[in-house]
Write a structure and sequence with these properties.
Elements (H helix, E strand, L loop, with lengths): L5 H6 L7 E4 L3 E5 L7 E7 L14 H18 L6 E4 L3 H4 L8 E5 L10
Antiparallel strand pairs: 1-2, 2-3, 3-5, 4-5
This protein binds adenosine monophosphate.
């Protein structure tokens, strides 16, 4: 069993977070250290530590993460101009929290995809 992170506590509303969306599969909340005017994390309610751990049984939750990102982007008013969806995996990907999450980042031009 993978170890829970603080994101499980946010999902269960045991610690505070600015939750913007929640349903039976996913939860979305504002990043505590935003890198852009809109920076929201969308996470599955069940613990999937990294992209490496994704299996077919997770597809409903993983797919919902993207449709929810699109809905929130519209609500945030950034859909037309565009935004970036990012999943970091393990050390080289820069993953800090081992509960898979989709970053929805936008509200300004984001520059090159990968910093050199
Ligand atoms: P990653 O590097 O992809 O694992 O991203 C982890 C993200 O979680 C970072 O952008 C952090 O700022 C964010 N984060 C860490 N703790 C919290 C928290 N308590 N509430 C909201 N976002 C958080």
């Amino acid at each position: 069993m993978a170890e829970e992170t603080l994101f499980s506590k946010i999902i269960r509303r045991e610690i505070p977070a600015d939750i913007v969306y929640q349903d039976e599969l996913v939860t979305a909340f504002r990043d505590i250290a935003p890198k852009a005017p809109t920076h929201i994390l969308i996470v599955p309610n069940i613990l999937i530590p990294t992209a490496n751990d994704a299996v077919a049984g997770h597809e409903a939750a993983l797919g919902r993460m993207i449709t929810v990102a699109a809905k929130i982007a519209k609500e945030e008013g950034i859909a037309e101009d565009g935004y970036r969806l990012i999943i970091n995996c393990n050390q080289h990907g820069g993953q800090e929290v081992y509960h898979i999450h989709l970053h929805l980042v936008g509200g300004r031009p984001l520059g090159p995809m990968i910093a050199h």
